[in-house]
């Protein structure tokens, strides 16, 4: 999937219904969309030329000509002979095809997430986490696994961190934070109220807030100081599935390694001590 279609997919929930129809044509027919005139695209999407222009500007383009040229360039770098690209799992797929499509989707989620990370924002997040008194991490459902992974990573290098998936505990914890702390809210859709409520409470108490979501204009971003995004595409049978978690874990790893670099000697010592503490728990 191209950079443009990744951005279009991320903006989908924030677009109007008419703009969403334009976006879906771009996402689903990226290889051929660059050959459509603005009138053709509007007709294909059941929309208007004015709506196409609004969609272009939402993506950051000056107009349709710029979008069309970008799509054409990205189409030239793709592999048109790969039937897996952009395909969903169908009822008639055999198990070998299912395995190939899942592997492709998961690998692509990691690649596209890494490609679209805003390094300047990542630098700010690393600085906040490295200097925080403590880090509270909120996530429920599939995102709770990612929150726990992040907490464990930070804990291993001597950082005080807590992962909360219970709403009452999360809200209680958030109420005790202040300007010395950092709150992380993890939500693939960016619409999970349990996560948003605790996250917003942390911000009201003065904590710096960092959101991790697949959708850069989702509700959780409205109460975040900083936003990190993923680029995972969920498919049939795969809502909240591995691709989104792998994408989230990719970003979390980038934050963690950045923090570890900034506290290199302390991190080395903490890793050695914690590894030694559990060595005799492994059986050879």
Gist?
This is RpiR family transcriptional regulator. With 284 residues, this protein is α/β, with parallel strands linked by helices.
Low-confidence stretches: none
Give the proportion of residues in helices. 55-70%
Rg over CA atoms: 21 Å
Overall spatial form = globular
User: What is the structural class?
Assistant: alpha/beta
* N-to-C order of helices and strands: HHHHHHHHEHEHEHEEHH
Q: If strands are numbered along the chain, what order do they take across the biggest sheet?
A: 2-1-3-4-5
What is the mean pLDDT? 89
Please give the largest β-sheet: 5 strands, parallel
| Number of DSSP E strands | 5
Q: Which percent range describes the beta-strand content?
A: 5-15%
Specify the number of helices: 13
| Amino-to-carboxy terminus distance | 44 Å
Describe this structure in words.
InterPro entries: Homeodomain-like_sf (IPR009057), HTH_RpiR (IPR000281), RpiR-like (IPR047640), RpiR-like_SIS (IPR035472), SIS_dom (IPR001347), SIS_dom_sf (IPR046348), WH-like_DNA-bd_sf (IPR036388). Residues 2-78 form the HTH rpiR-type domain. This is RpiR family transcriptional regulator. There is one protein chain. This protein has helices at residues 3-11, 17-28, 30-33, 38-44, 49-58, 64-76, 95-116, 119-131, 142-156, 167-175, 193-204, 242-262, 264-278, and strands at residues 135-138, 161-164, 182-186, 208-213, 226-229. The protein is α/β, with parallel strands linked by helices. Helix 11 links the parallel strand 3 and strand 4. The protein is globular and about 65 Å long.
């Amino acid at each position: 999937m191209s950079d443009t279609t990744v951005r279009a997919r991320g903006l989908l929930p924030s677009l109007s219904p008419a703009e969403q129809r334009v976006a879906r044509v771009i996402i689903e027919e990226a290889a051929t969309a660059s050959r459509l005139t603005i009138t053709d695209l509007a007709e294909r999407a059941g929309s208007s030329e004015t709506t196409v222009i609004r969609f272009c500007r939402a993506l950051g383009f000056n107009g349709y000509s710029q979008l069309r040229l970008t799509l054409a360039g990205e189409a030239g770098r793709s592999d048109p002979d790969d039937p897996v690209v952009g395909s969903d799992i169908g009822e008639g797929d055999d198990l070998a095809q299912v395995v190939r499509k899942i592997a492709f989707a998961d690998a692509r989620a990691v690649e596209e997430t890494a490609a679209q990370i805003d390094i300047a924002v990542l630098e700010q997040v690393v600085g906040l986490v490295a200097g925080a008194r403590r880090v509270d991490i909120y996530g429920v459902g599939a995102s709770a696994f990612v929150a726990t992974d992040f907490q464990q990573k930070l804990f291993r290098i001597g950082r005080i961190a807590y992962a909360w998936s219970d709403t009452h505990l999360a809200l209680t914890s958030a109420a005790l934070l202040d300007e010395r702390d950092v709150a992380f809210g993890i939500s693939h859709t960016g619409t999970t109220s349990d996560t948003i409520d605790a996250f917003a409470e942390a911000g009201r108490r003065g904590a710096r807030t960092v959101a991790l979501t697949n959708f850069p204009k989702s509700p959780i971003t409205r109460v975040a100081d900083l936003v990190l995004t993923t680029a995972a595409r969920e498919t049939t049978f795969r809502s909240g599935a591995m691709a989104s978690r792998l994408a989230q874990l990719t970003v979390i790893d980038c934050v963690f390694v950045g923090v570890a670099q900034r506290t290199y000697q302390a991190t080395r010592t903490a890793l050695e001590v914690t590894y030694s503490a559990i060595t005799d728990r492994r059986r050879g």
